[in-house]
Amino acid sequence: MRAKTIDRIATYVLTGIAVLIIAVLVGLLGFILTNGWHKLTFDFITSPPDLLKAGGGVGPQLFNSLYLLVLTMLISLPLGLGAGIYMAEYAPNNRITQSIRLCIEVLSSLPSIVVGLFGLLVFVTMTGWGYSLMSGALALTVFNLPLLVRISEDAIRNVPKSQKEASFALGISKWRTVVTVLLPAALPGIVTGAILASGRVFGEAAALLFTAGMSSPDLIFHDFNLDSPTSPLNPFRPAETLAVHIWKVNTEGLTPDARDVADGAAAILVLAVLLFNLGARWFGTWLFKKMTSVTR
User: Fold this and answer.
1) Are 237 and 260 in contact (CB under 8 A)?
2) Which family does it belong to (predicted)?
């Protein structure tokens, strides 16, 4: 009876913790969306900001955030996945790999402001690119690599050994086993890591203040010349993201409706992260079914 009572109490406690976490999340989302819902109009989402009068939007900032996300993931995903495969399947268990794991842990604990200063020194100053999307993407790659490496390594290591041994028994090479057996089975964990890294890209502001900048040129969205300073696809132009814009509007206080703009931008940022997470999970599930012929 005592064991049953303890088990029942533990169940209630853990259930209460889960409910508390959900309640905090729902309350936070509800507060942000309630305050910013009135600003979610087509003009606000598509028009550029106006710091001298009320009524500006966040169109270029939203595009910059999405474009920066694409650039960052194009750089960090192959590097993180490749490093995770190496650490899980190819790296010997010696002092060198232990040092690599220690470096990854230290790198993951660096404050974002430190990563931003490193990006300012290396990607902005030493390369001569100045404040640009590429500088911000490389700084965020440094920020996200430890997370992607550890999650990719853990996801591959958690694949049952019987699957790998069965592949070897059929005479399949190690690389083919990694590509056709381990990666498809580890795909849900890798997708989760990519989603977490993407969320950090959307919400990061401190590192981008020193790398991508706090201003954007007047973009011409029908200009597809990558060398043009007004082209939205130019990766070497300065770009103010949505998170940086929220910080800038609140701190400078130049816009008459600064609070409304910040609330609306925060609501758009939350909705963008939510929609991206749902879309990424749907794509990961679809790809997992295509690669493994397993229904989940």
Assistant:
1) no
2) Belongs to the binding-protein-dependent transport system permease family. CysTW subfamily.
Name the CATH code of domain 40-292 (choices 3.10.580.10, 3.40.630.10, 1.10.3720.10, 3.40.50.720): 1.10.3720.10
Are 255 and 54 a contacting pair, CB within 8 Å?
yes
Domain boundaries, the chain: 40-292
Residue 73 to residues 41, 70, 226: CA-CA distances in angstroms? 29, 5, 20
Identity at 6, one-letter amino acid code: I
> Model confidence over 17-46: pLDDT tens digits?
999 999 998 998 899 888 888 888 888 888
Per-residue model confidence (pLDDT) at position 119 = 92
Tens digits of residue pLDDT in 163-188: 888 888 888 888 889 888 888 888 88
SS3 of 217, please? coil
The confidence score (pLDDT) of residue 1 equals 59
Task: Count how many Cα atoms sit within 13 Å of the Cα of residue 175 in the half-sphere of its side chain.
Answer: 1
